[in-house]
Write a structure and sequence with these properties.
This protein is mainly α and 131 residues long. The protein is built from 6 helices and no strands.
């Protein structure tokens, strides 16, 4: 899939999600929160499928044409699982469990953000060491 197609697909899924979210928050619809998040889950499903295909190809061939290590691919998988966990926890909180505080629903997001910040910091230190 070309870069232009991926960017366009990302923008369209985000646009669909935001339109449905605004309709729900404005009172135009009374849909289930799980339905509201379908565009994000469709996007995540495609990303996970592409990641699984690349991991299978890496295991079959012993290398990857993009020079991405298997460790990095497992890292991407972990980050996606945390993102999906946050989306599920938020939907469950908004739809069914109104008495649960928001900070409990946001724990997967905090883990996701800490992991991403740590990865960025690690790559920054590696670039400084190489220069």
């Amino acid at each position: 899939m070309a870069l232009v197609h991926r960017v366009l697909f990302t923008w369209l899924m985000t646009l669909f999600f935001l339109i449905i979210l605004v309709l729900r928050l404005d009172g135009g619809t009374d849909w289930n929160w799980f339905i509201i998040f379908i565009p994000l889950w469709a996007f995540d499903a495609i990303i996970l499928a592409m990641l699984a295909i690349r991991m299978i190809r890496h295991c079959r061939n012993g290398y990857d044409s993009d020079d991405v290590t298997m460790r990095k691919k497992v890292w991407y998988l972990l980050v996606m699982v945390m993102k999906l966990g946050f989306q599920m926890a938020l939907c469950l909180k908004l739809q069914y469990f109104h008495d649960i505080p928001y900070y409990l629903a946001f724990i997967p997001l905090w883990g996701f953000l800490l992991c991403v910040a740590g990865d960025i910091f690690r790559s920054f230190l590696l670039r400084l060491r190489n220069d």
